[in-house]
TrEMBL record:
Its EC number is 2.3.1.286. This is protein acetyllysine N-acetyltransferase. Keywords: NAD, Transferase. It comes from Enterococcus italicus (strain DSM 15952 / CCUG 50447 / LMG 22039 / TP 1.5). SUPFAM superfamilies: DHS-like NAD/FAD-binding domain. It comes from the Bacteria. Residues 1-237 form the Deacetylase sirtuin-type domain. One of its GO terms (molecular function) is histone deacetylase activity, NAD-dependent. The keyword NAD applies. The keyword Transferase applies. PANTHER family: NAD-DEPENDENT PROTEIN DEACYLASE (PTHR11085:SF4), NAD-DEPENDENT PROTEIN DEACYLASE SIRTUIN-5, MITOCHONDRIAL-RELATED (PTHR11085).
Length: 239
């Protein structure tokens, strides 16, 4: 039995699964990641500044010009998102995602913690009113005169206690924690693994190895292949 087959069989037998997902989950949908050779940070000096609270405050035009490049409203959920949603029919499934593209929600997953927020939730910094993201892409000025911004966690901003609580609860609930498409180096997201149950298994499906304390199963390669195989097994198991 191959490692892939063994991991799939264990996932099918689990009761509760929590997925910790990163940018590599959305690249098959045509959304660039951040740090690869073709990522959005490539060739930029201090790219983190462009996604910082300081940039938003001091140079809102520069922030707005950069953030608009992150929107891909025509992108569709891929087989990874779809398989995670399919698992909900037979398992208790949670997703905690670093991604701000909303594709897990669009795929139909119901227990999703968008750890860094969503580009598609936009509000006015002055009056607090929410507006459609399409209005923001047309202009970052609200009718009241205030500036709009997406509800994402920028560099220098903190996480709400509710977000942390929900993410921790999702990890604590899992028999198996699956880390997919992330370097798993950004805090506090990578610290969530410390809240897993003592006997919970950890699976990693990633293009590159990640470093974790304790025992884990790592499958290095294209996550699309793994999730296509898992999706097929799910369909075969249905009556």
């Amino acid at each position: 039995m191959t490692k892939e087959t063994a991991m799939i069989e264990q996932l099918l037998q689990a009761k509760s699964i929590t997925f910790l997902t990163g940018a590599g989950v959305s690249t098959p949908s045509g959304i660039p990641d951040y740090r690869s050779l073709h990522g959005i940070y490539q060739g930029l000096d201090q790219p983190e500044y462009l996604l910082s609270a300081t940039c938003l405050k001091r140079e809102p035009e520069k922030f707005y010009s950069f953030i608009k490049q992150l929107y891909h409203p025509d992108a569709l959920p891929n087989v990874i998102h779809q398989t995670i949603h399919e698992l909900e029919k037979t398992h208790n499934v949670w997703v905690v995602s670093q991604n701000i593209d909303g594709l897990h929600d669009r795929a139909g997953s119901t227990q999703v913690v968008n750890f860094h927020g969503s580009l598609y939730h936009v509000y006015c910094q002055s009056c607090g009113k929410e507006v459609p993201y399409a209005d923001y892409l047309a202009s970052d000025r609200h009718l009241c005169g205030g500036r709009l911004r997406p509800a994402i966690v920028l560099y220098e901003e903190g996480f709400t206690p509710q977000t942390i609580k929900e993410a921790v609860r999702a990890v604590e609930a899992a028999d198996i924690v699956v880390i997919v498409g992330t370097t798993f180096q950004v805090h506090p997201f990578c610290d969530l693994i410390e809240y897993k149950q003592k006997n919970a298994q950890v699976f990693v499906v990633n293009q590159t190895p990640i470093h974790l304390r304790g025992q884990k199963e790592q499958l290095i390669g294209n996550a699309v292949d793994f999730f296509q195989a898992l999706y097929q097994k799910l369909k075969e198991a249905q009556p």
